[in-house]
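Hey, resending since the last one bounced:
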Amino acid sequence: MCRAMEDMRNQTLKEGMKEVALRMLAAGKYALEEIVNISGLSLEEVKQLKADRSKLVKPSGYNICKDRNVLKDCLESREKYDLAREKAVFMLQKGKIIADEIRKYFPELIESDIKEIEETIIQT
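The structure tokens again:
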């Protein structure tokens, strides 16, 4: 039983470190090596998290607000924004658009996100 409890604790800690790494990736201010050193995750795990941007951390209380219809318009707007961002990345990766066309096809995206998307695509 102690082993099972220890395994659960380790899994919980690892999930917490993945959330930290995701937040650091979303901030766009940290090198992968810094994220590895701070989170304790392997470089391969951090690269996988970076590649899987669909796991972006939602703001605290996100699902509670959504379930209770609190700030419904704001949350729906944020979901639409996140979807537009994901579509822009997808279309760039598939070669359907070029980086200069993001502003044309996704006018709802803010300049800092457009720059981050461009940098991400250039790095991959």
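The CA atoms of residues 19 and 35 lie 11 Å apart.

Sorry for the duplicate.
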